[in-house]
Amino acid sequence: MADKARVRDEATRFLTFFEGHGACVVEADILQPAETLLDLYGEDIRARAFVTHDPDLGEMMLRPDFTVPVVQMHMAEGAEPARYAYMGEVFRAQDETRHRASEYFQVGYEVFDRAAPIEADAEVFALLKEVLAPLNLRAATGDMGLLLAAVRGLRTTERRKSALLRHIWRPRRFRALIDRFAGRAPLPDGRAQLLVADDPFDADTPHIGLRSPSEIAERVAALHEDAAAAPISAQEVELLDDLLGLRETTANVLEHLRDIAVDMPAIAAAVDRLEARAEALERRGVDVARLDFEGSYGRTSMEYYDGFVFGFYSETRPDLPPVATGGRYDALTRVLGNQNGDRRDIPAVGGVIRPELTLELTGEAGQ
Amino acid sequence: MTVKLGVPSKGRLMEKTFDWFGAAGIALSRTGSDREYAAAVDGIDGVELVLLSAGEIPRELAAGRIHLGVTGSDLVREKLGAWSEKVTELAPMGFGHADLIIAVPKCWVDVNTLDDLDAVAAAFRAKHGFRLRIATKYHRLIRDHLRDHGVADYQLVDSQGATEGTVKNETAEAVADITSTGETLRANHLKILAGGPVHKSQATLFKSRKAEWSTTERATLETLCRKLGIDR
User: Fold this and answer.
1) Which pathway (chain B) (predicted)?
2) pLDDT at A99 > cutoff 70
């Protein structure tokens, strides 16, 4: 592992590059309020972040990334459009079987631009590609917007769609729900009895807890409604699977997506955006004929990306984590905005580089 | 050097452990006064008995300060991250059975499975403005289990005792705790979710992978395992 001074120099090199492209350099606190991160990422983050305790402020976390503090800073005082760059350590508690670093540098570049989101996507990708060019990395891209549009366009109930959208970043759960809603999986234990019962409520069971009897009754009614709804068609499930299974170059994928869009018109606008982005990337010198596209890319990251997503990988060192990753995370900023009682949308796209990995690849790490 | 064997220092768990070793001709006993934590081992050479709280035995095994230890399989999984890198299970001992379960109010007629719990958690959060609370002291086991089953929008609140009362007291919406008969759960108007327990726990003899195992200690372990009928 490269020593810290070298990593810091390498990080500064990237930061200066971003600054030279118009980014305003910002700092973020290392200690972040745990509650905000827990509400955003769920209880799982506890296993992945270092939690500590402040006698006055309560639970705090060592920042697992810069996304939250940078978005919050922008919401509080930023004017749009804005471009930010930052560098510093992030802290990730690692599953010990994987033996990965629990503390490492990130250098990031984030763009908040409402007027031209597609251009902003292309800008972030092209900048990272440019600064990483000497390392000959493979880029993989995806677009969560396609999957989101496909789910929103399913011919099924709103309730089912929102259940699917809620679990879009949990592929196993998403699959289980699709199977259920398509009538391919059995009902969960106890559901059938509940649905046939004339009065499922047992007069002898006292009501306890904060969840009220009306909330229970509402869900029972929702379950009846769901049981009566037609299953999602096999054809629609197949189209979704096609979408998720895509692995082609960006140029070829567009053609394939146009075919899918004939049967699934809901994704047409998302395909148009993908095409416009490909053109924007091309104008910035990216060879889209050779740029890899994966339909499922971006579903398992912590960032809750909901549009363009990308990562840069070393083909000579497949053991290393991605050297850089990024994407559009409008959904995450929406949640953060709502937490603050502020319902503004903040369109945001960004990417981070891990300087100790770029050092390792240039062979300067061991010196 | 001697092989240090950590055993729970009091109660039924200690007595049952003594019986279990006794049945194999290894007599463990407490010595000195009732209050003194001193112990003796007869029937095998080179083994030293260390009396400890059952809850501390996982930590001592992971640190390599004891070579062997008897404790609940739930405690090892809860207290040690990547537990299988630190200890190995030598033998389940057939007592101290308890299931780690998740329970919800019996009046939740719409909830039977983790699927239901997940759906209710989403609705609960939308309605009440905070994540559905599950009271437990088994944070790691429950969090891993819920993650594996794709449950979201919940929070774990720490409860070190009287966990079954938290729902009625409205400090939690559900509980996750160990139970052997389910009696306390029923008495508190709770029901166990279907789909099997999160973990079926029992008293287990563990071997530390972090302790120093010299030739002498290895030989002692061989003898011990032979006497106990443990196939290694």
Assistant:
1) Amino-acid biosynthesis; L-histidine biosynthesis; L-histidine from 5-phospho-alpha-D-ribose 1-diphosphate: step 1/9
2) no
**At a CB cut-off of 8 Å and minimum separation 6, what does A292 contact?**
A138, A139, A140, A141, A247, A248, A249, A250
Rounded to the nearest 5°, which phi and psi values hold at B107? -70, -10
Q: Which structural domains are found in chain B, ordered by start?
A: 3-97+203-228 (3.40.190.10), 98-200 (3.40.190.10)
Q: Which of B102, B107, B146, B210 to mutate to test the interface with A (most CBs of A within 10 A)?
A: B107
ipTM above 0.85, yes or no: yes
Query: Are B108 and A211 in contact (CB < 8 Å)?
Result: yes
Of the candidates A283, A281, A274, the one whose C-alpha atom is nearest the C-alpha of residue A255 is: A274
As for how many domains chain A has, the answer is 3
Asked whether B154 and B132 are in contact (CB, 8 A), the reply is yes
Tokens coding B164: 């079954």
- For residues A81 and A114, the answer to whether their CB atoms sit within 8 Å is yes
Contact B152 A200 (CB under 8 A): no
Q: Which residues of B touch A203 (CB under 8 A)?
A: none
Q: Mutating which of B78, B106, B110 best tests the A interface, going by the most A Cβ atoms within 10 A?
A: B110
Nearest CA in chain B to A200: B109
Residue A271 has pLDDT above 70, yes or no: yes
pLDDT at A95 over 70: no
Residue A216: which of B109, B118, B195 has the nearest Cβ?
B109
Q: Indicate which CATH number applies to the domain containing A91.
A: 3.30.930.10
Q: How confident is the model at residue A32 (pLDDT cuts 50, 70, 90)?
A: very high
List the single residue in A163, A166, A189 with the smallest CB-CB distance to B195.
A189
Does residue A365 have a pLDDT over 50?
Answer: no
Domain assignment of residue A43, yes or no: yes
Q: How high is the pLDDT of residue A328? A: 95
Question: What confidence score (pLDDT) does residue A123 get?
Answer: 97
As a whole number of angstroms, the distance between CA B85 and CA B165 comes to 36
